[in-house]
Amino acid sequence: ATTGVSINKTSQSLRETPQSVTVMTRQLMNEQNLNGLDEVMAQTPGITFSQRNFGSHVFSSRGFALEDESYTIDGVAGQGYSVTGWMTPDTEIYDRVEVLRGAAGLLIGAGNPGGAVNLVRKRPTALPQFSITTRAGSWDQYRVDLDGSSKLNDSGSVRGRFVTSYEDRGYFIDGLKKTAPLLYGILETDLSEDTTLTLGLRHQSADTHGYSIFGLPRYSNGKAIDLPRSTSLAQDWNRHQTRTDEVFSELETRFDENWSGTLSATHSDGAFDQKVAYAQGAIDPATQSGSRLVRTLFRSDTLQSDGFDSHLDGRFDAFGLTHQLTIGGNWSEQKRDSRYATVNSNRPLDIFNPDHDAIAEPARPAWRSTDYSDKRYGVYSNLRLSLTESLSLVMGGRVSWYDYQSQSAGVTTRAQEENQVTPFVGVIYDLNRDWSWYAQPHRYLPAAKRL
């Protein structure tokens, strides 16, 4: 059982966290064969999972969608649209997934009342370890995972870990298939007895054929159509390609047995390319027709994300009790260039005997584009006061700044917020060695639909 979480920047037990937190451990992911964040979130208590299109998902907590800003990796924000929009992270490289339900604006900034998700990367181990896992399943589903870690010098001051996987799979839907390679490497170096430098990288990509952005139609009277679940209205040349390349670093210094400081940075470049002919239209029960291949959509997006976090954490004694203080600041920026084009076809389609080569792949017309820039930064503090040995008061706050811009067809839209204060307070009472009671008030004030 997992007793500690790091979603609040410091390693704390679940009992020391005055919010609802679920930890999806590495053991649980292995036992339930959960290979993607979508699969993990679908099994997380209190999380509602829905699929927008194939490979694109929405996760909700307490009735609120967890937007891009709700996700962090090792406590660092800034991964943005790539998390849920075009490629679900492969969880083979993560040690655990921490899911917080409730307001999360203190450390994230532009949080929402639904919650937050923190992905904790696998770390190197000094003791040698190696594992290889192979899987095979229905509809030609195959996957292999390799995970190796060891010290890289005699003293163990340099440690490394390498994880790779490859998935080649089909689905119960006709013509739908995907290949997805993953590479991950991380290196830890003890610069001194008190300072550790961590460097790492990740490459993840996916190539999906037979991709579709809509489901099957219904009859015009609203009744369901008795179609085989394998039915696909996609064209054979429909394709969706995604890629994310990420580098990250962390410098941790332990000043003494009670105080430490951490600097963390992440940079990622992502892209996706899509060409998809799609069908729309309800079916007339009398004629058994009505669906048409209405158009082809071309999309090509690129995303550059940067995130930085620095914090100081420590414990101190006062009035005969031990207290904890965390202070820090973080910054993140995402720049996205979204290009799209459409070609109308308006060709009738027999959904009962779909032709996957009904139209030839059209030539792409000139791109239309929209550029986005999303920058946010802030400072935060969190103080845990032990009022008695059984009663603790947790309080803190954050001051945030936010700048959002979009540009399309020569028109620029901008939204800014400054000096946005997010307070935090909670109490924890230990009833006995196994049970604790906690309370925390929430107040949600969205600003410019972003904070």
Overall number of strands: 22
CATH superfamily, called what? TonB-dependent receptor, beta-barrel domain
SSE order, as H and E?
Answer: EEEHHEEEEEHEEEEEEEEEEEEEE
Strand pairing plus helix content: what structural class?
mainly beta
Question: What attributes characterize this protein structure?
Answer:
13-stranded antiparallel beta sheet, four-stranded mixed beta sheet, 57% strand, disordered C terminus
Describe this structure as you would to a colleague.
There is one protein chain. The protein is mainly β and 451 residues long. The protein has a single domain (4-439), classed as Beta Barrel (Maltoporin, Chain A). It is 4% helix and 57% strand. It is built from three helices and 22 strands. It has helices spanning 26-31, 37-42, 105-108, and strands spanning 4-5, 12-13, 20-25, 47-53, 56-61, 64-65, 71-73, 94-101, 115-121, 129-137, 141-151, 158-170, 177-190, 195-209, 239-254, 259-280, 292-318, 321-348, 368-386, 391-408, 411-430, 436-439. Strands 10-11-12-13-14-15-16-17-18-19-20-21-22 form a 13-stranded antiparallel beta sheet. The protein is globular.
